[in-house]
Fold this protein.
Amino acid sequence: MPTILVVDDSAVDRRLVGGMLKKSPGLSIEFAGNGAEALEVFKWAVPHVVITDLQMPEMDGLELVRRIRQEQPQLPVILITAHGSERLAMQALESGAASYVPKSQIADRLLPTVQQVLAVNTEQPYEDLMRCLTHFDYKFELTSNPALIPPLVDLVQRFLAGMGLCDPSDTTRIGLALHEAMENALIYGTLELGQEASQAAPRRRSELIERRRKDAPYAGRKISVEVEISLDEARFTVTDEGPGFDAASLPDPADESSWESVGRGYRLMRAFMDEVAYGGRGNVVTLVKHFAARSTEFQLNEPA
């Protein structure tokens, strides 16, 4: 049974988050009052996911992310962010956090985000063969069915893990970035669902998607996903058949003051990937992640 560690200095907020997580009967919940207490928990139990507030005494969420990255790099961390803490959230994502959920959207987004992170499965039935893989290049033509996105992400994560290109935390982060790119292409590009969908609760958003994907001209549109992974880099190009948008209107990534005006998906892509570039008429996005050489441990484990 997966264990989730909830870290927050507010007892009220801990109970609130715990209550939301208990809606999924397959989860075990533990609690800590701040980052220092969370590290004490690790001495007797290592959870599968950590959910942490950002602002706490003794050790805040940002420092906790950094410590976990150093000591438990395979352990994903999800941030809960208050309004006005976007800059700290970006610092935490860049320091190793796997995702974040705005406090204003916690009721709708928290449990799906936890389930998404837990869905990463690194079991490798073809482990020895995957270690011999040096390059592959796939192209998918997806219909406007959102159920196709998770298995494609899972496939990519299995290749990344099997090839030994990055640790489990980075595997999760790359998968989340790709998921956001494809979901954006589906909702805002192919189906042309705007703010109504982005601000809707998950059930309502699903209803909007199902209704729109049956109507012309949206029903026949597809999303192209090109996946190229080598020992040097992973490159993903996602193209939708929507009308596009003015990519020049997106904020400069170096301008931290502008991040409040962009969506969660764009932030995650920028935080987790080394390159994010838009092309075409704004309906093409390319994500690139560069890799260091495969680890010595991995090389020593290669089959003779």
Residues 295-304 have pLDDT under 50 and may be disordered.
